[in-house]
Amino acid sequence: MESVQYHAPQSLEEAVPLLKQARQTPSRILAGGTDLLIQMRAGVKSPEMLIDIKKIPETTGFEIGADEIRLGAAVPSAVMDESPELHQQLPGVVEGMELIGSTQVQGRATPGGNLCNASPAGDGAPAMIASSGQCVVFGPNGVRTIPVEEVCTAPGRTSLADDEFIQEFRFPTPKAGQADAYLRFIPRNEMDIAVVGVAANITVDAGGICTAAKVTLGAVGPTVVIATEVAELLVGTKLDDATLEKAAEIASGLGSPISDKRGTAEFRHRIAGVLTRRVIKIAATRAGERL
Amino acid sequence: MSTNKDYKWVGTSPIRPDGADKVTGKAAFGADKNLPGMLHGKILRSPYGHAKIKSIDTSAAESAPGVLAVMTSKDLPDLASEMGEAGESAVDFRDLSQNILAAGKVLYHGHAVAAVAATSPKLAKQALKLIKVEYEELPVVLEIEDAMADDAPILHENQFTPGGSQDKPSNIAGKMKLPRGDIEKGFAEADVIVEREFTTPTVHQGYIEPHAVTASMSASGHADVWCCTQGAFVVRAMTAKVLNMDVGKVKVTPSEIGGGFGAKTTVYLEPIAVKLSEMSGRPVKMVMDREEVLRATGPTSASVIKIKLGATNDGKLVAAEGTLKYGAGAYKGSPMGPGCMCVFASYEIPNFVVRGFDVVLNKPKVAAYRAPGAPMAAFAMESVMNEMAGKLDLDPIDFRLENAVKEGSVAAYGPKFPAIGFVETLKAAKEHPHYSAPLGKNQGRGVGTGFWFNIGMQSSATLNVNESGSVTLITGSADIGGSRASMALFAAEELGIDYDLITPLVSNTEEAGYCDVTGGSRTTFATGMAVVKASKNLVANMKKRAAKTWGVEVDEVLWQDGQAVPPFSSGKNPMSMAEIAASAAKTGGPLTASASLTAQGAGAGFGVHICDVEVDPETGKTDVIRYTAIQDAGKAIHPAYVEGQYQGGAAQGIGWALNEEYVYNDKGVLQNFGFLDYRMPVANDLPMIDTVIVEVPNPAHPYGVRGVGETPIVPPLAAVAEAVNNAAGVRITDLPISPPRLLAEIDAK
Ligand SMILES: Cc1cc2nc3c(=O)[nH]c(=O)nc-3n(C[C@H](O)[C@H](O)[C@H](O)COP(=O)(O)OP(=O)(O)OC[C@H]3O[C@@H](n4cnc5c(N)ncnc54)[C@H](O)[C@@H]3O)c2cc1C
């Protein structure tokens, strides 16, 4: 590969012929490039064609509706972080994106890129799943909608076809008493890869009883782990210390983390429990404030 | 910080002359040198941690597209084992050569085996894949104690322990013993004894700029070398030696340097680039990537250090015993010697013995890193001092004051200390508001102290006065910490002219007078002395010129505020430097002055650091929340850059303490070969590092300068560890204090 074709379609229609070409030519979607360009330099990926989706209006804006929040797949994390409305509605989803890399990287990194890079340690996915995000997937034959958790199938692999990309994410607008949160653990304070990341989306009623919950764990398995057992435990409780302790214990046993230079499996299990307890508390406090 | 009554320029902090070019991207670093027709060199590296090279077949690579030269160690002269000076430490030139290109055996994963020069970096890389190397894999040894064991895999069949068996080769390349008094008697007098063993990991200097060189060999056999280095003259000496050339046939031009911290005082690429240029007849450029830097350059030694310390109930040290084992990497030459000399250097201890071991293992050969050997030694000794203070129920600083070396004390390594500032530094730390500030939950405070010798060595400086009276100041000392600014300040002070009228340059080995490496914290001290001396020579000459103009005796002329002042009786007006320069043609020609010297009397530097941390007891994560570095500078010529040294050393020491470490698999393959997983602190991992500059002048320097660059990395390891001990109720003896390790310690308590 001596050269790479670069295309920046200005609209979804303009993208169609390129996506069709992508069926034959080894291609990649380019969003912020903070994963892809590095992988290309390292020789890990060598596409012959890049389709830059940042010029397509549907991918770069966001909108907060009464029932649904629309988030373009190529919105940079810095833009998400600068929006008080997004912080208000989906603080956990924003948290998962705004802690990526450093200020420079945040100007580029996108939720679509984070998800489709399919790193087990990606910080964006856990909260997007906990907050019941759906992906609007665009292809030459139109759009289809799939839950976020159906995108990553294994490290570095997605369920998208060669001629598809994620146009935008859709989240149900949180109801009164509902909020999300994301916490990750890294040995430093920035520029590091999650040892474990945990997201929670919690709904409480006026009596402080948890009426709905979704908890997800990143970096403890090949893809995000949805902790159904933890959610089931929480519903119907007042999220008291004993319940959270039990939740931590369950979370510590989930997934199949590996031991590597970033931490031992045992350490990851431990931290998964600690973060689960802490993140549920944060989400529950936020939920209470939204009653 | 420092008040400055006597001087106009010395002690001020003007902007560095190289600053604007650096912040606007104009400054040229190692990889910025390009020449017409230039080739690109790449290196084939060992995929094994330890293996015999059975054969190398380069034929396919030689005929690959774009390839103009391929070389292996066969293309380097066979050198005899011979020790030579290499910056601060000695080097065996045969080892140096074999580290540059492996001969017979590869001794670490990443060891260079062959090199290719081709018309593009890509073609050079492709050609590397065509080189066929047949290896016979050997067992690796990565840990110091394992390498010292009787049945350890042996790296060098011709290396025997000095004083040990001369039949059985050994990985113990060197030993050292420093005794004083009678330790049995000493420990018998002790009321309290603390004994502990400490380990520190292999860590890298972590300079941002990878090694880079461009070399061009002329048809007449003259080599031109451009590279980033802390010492152009040491690159010249080593390159010439490895290629069996006369030093006069090698010209080395140093670029701006993006960090070195001691490690850019040796060569890896330069002789290869010169040889490839000779073989191809074209200039050759070689630039390492980060992975090569981490796998095959630097790092500094891992260590295993045991300290036994005895004190009386009233806080007097009576006996000490230290066993210091340092990993050298693939070839002998760890900083075991300075480590042993430093370990007890800060205290008056009547009875001690220090034993040192220099141990080879299947890791890259270590290179100097800021105060080589001292941080590990101080981590062990200062940790024991902190524990002892606790046992004696003494304030840790008071305990140190009780035992601190001062003027007249005989240093543990031999000489008697002249005026030194350890006591003053300790007192400044104790009085600092940080030391008594309240702490919150899960927070703890620790102190650590550090000592470093600093060195003198050889320096030269030349001043050329321009016809306007401005001055070009030339030295051969690489500027790694703002030394050009300090050199200009010395000259401005001596000449009595504005700092801005002086252009300080770092020149090449053919145009600057000889200067040893910028290392050992010597440049502001020693090259500064040469600048002062050259300036005084220039003033003497200018007084002569003025005397001649006025027709008076030279000793009647005074030099004041940049002017020659005539005797009152002459009725003449003073002549400014600009006037003297303008009329130089008539008074004897161009005004230049030089000085060269071997600087004597480098002043020992002492530092005391105070560190506060907060520990998350559930995750084992440590955050440094407040940090103060206090150190004796002798005299801060440019206080802002002195502070920069204190802060930089503290930052590197904090990284060493908390997260940095080489992680190997059991085959000797480094797992964390990038800055993502080799975790140096990033900006938001550190608080503002406060500094206090103490000034106890070094009597051997005209302005009282001591070196300041290295001491600041010595105290942090123990200061951080003690803060963690106090925050989490643990006793840290192994670095790094990474979250999994600290959590395990917390569990175990
Ligand atoms: C210094 C640094 C620090 C980092 N720190 C973090 C961190 O803390 N946490 C973390 O999670 N990540 C981190 N990353 C990784 C990276 O920044 C994030 O994963 C980022 O969100 C990727 O987004 P991007 O837009 O840059 O993706 P790109 O590089 O543009 O794309 C990534 C992959 O997704 C595909 N893709 C992109 N958009 C779409 C789409 N809409 N539909 C289908 N496929 C698509 C691309 O083809 C490519 O394969 C870091 C990276 C760097 C360089």
Question: Could you characterize what this model shows?
Answer:
The complex is a heterodimer of chains A (291) and B (749). With 291 residues, chain A is an alpha+beta fold. Chain A folds into two domains: 5-52 and 59-172, Uridine Diphospho-n-acetylenolpyruvylglucosamine Reductase, domain 3 (2-Layer Sandwich), CATH 3.30.465.10; 178-289, CO dehydrogenase flavoprotein, C-terminal domain (Enolase-like, domain 1), CATH 3.30.390.50. Chain A has helices at 12-21, 36-41, 57-60, 77-81, 84-89, 91-98, 103-106, 111-117, 125-130, 228-234, 241-252, 265-289, and strands at residues 5-7, 27-30, 49-52, 62-64, 68-72, 134-139, 142-147, 152-154, 157-158, 165-172, 178-185, 196-204, 210-218, 225-226. In chain A, α10 packs antiparallel against α11 and α11 (241-252) runs antiparallel to α12 (265-289). Chain A starts with a strand and ends with a helix. Chain B has 749 residues and is of the alpha+beta class. Chain B is built from 21 helices and 28 strands. In chain B, β26 and β27 form a beta hairpin. Chain B is globular and about 85 Å long. The mean pLDDT of chain B is 97. Classes of the chains: A alpha+beta (291), B alpha+beta (749). At the A-B interface, α12 of A face α21 of B. Flavin-adenine dinucleotide binds next to β2, α2, α8 and β10 of chain A.
List the helices and strands and how they pair.
The complex is a heterodimer of chains A (291) and B (749).
Chain A: E1 5-7, H1 12-21, E2 27-30, H2 36-41, E3 49-52, H3 57-60, E4 62-64, E5 68-72, H4 77-81, H5 84-89, H6 91-98, H7 103-106, H8 111-117, H9 125-130, E6 134-139, E7 142-147, E8 152-154, E9 157-158, E10 165-172, E11 178-185, E12 196-204, E13 210-218, E14 225-226, H10 228-234, H11 241-252, H12 265-289
Parallel strand pairs in A: 1-3, 2-3
Antiparallel strand pairs in A: 4-5, 5-10, 6-7, 6-10, 8-9, 11-12, 12-13, 13-14
Helix pairs in contact in A: 10-11, 11-12
Chain B: H1 19-23, E1 39-45, E2 51-57, H2 59-62, E3 67-72, E4 83-86, E5 89-92, H3 93-100, E6 105-106, E7 112-118, H4 121-128, E8 132-137, H5 144-148, E9 172-180, H6 183-189, E10 192-200, E11 212-217, E12 223-227, H7 232-243, E13 250-254, H8 270-280, E14 284-287, H9 290-296, E15 303-311, E16 317-329, H10 336-342, E17 351-360, H11 374-391, H12 396-403, H13 422-431, H14 433-436, E18 443-452, E19 457-465, E20 471-475, H15 483-495, E21 502-506, H16 523-550, E22 558-560, E23 563-565, E24 575-576, H17 577-582, H18 584-587, E25 592-599, E26 605-616, E27 621-632, H19 639-658, E28 689-694, H20 716-728, H21 739-748
Parallel strand pairs in B: 1-14, 12-13, 16-17, 20-21, 27-28
Antiparallel strand pairs in B: 1-7, 2-6, 2-8, 3-7, 4-5, 9-17, 10-15, 11-12, 11-14, 15-16, 18-26, 19-20, 19-25, 22-23, 23-24, 26-27
Helix pairs in contact in B: 7-8, 10-11, 11-20, 12-13, 15-16, 19-20
The site of flavin-adenine dinucleotide has 30 residues of chain A, from strand 2, helix 2, helix 8 and strand 10.
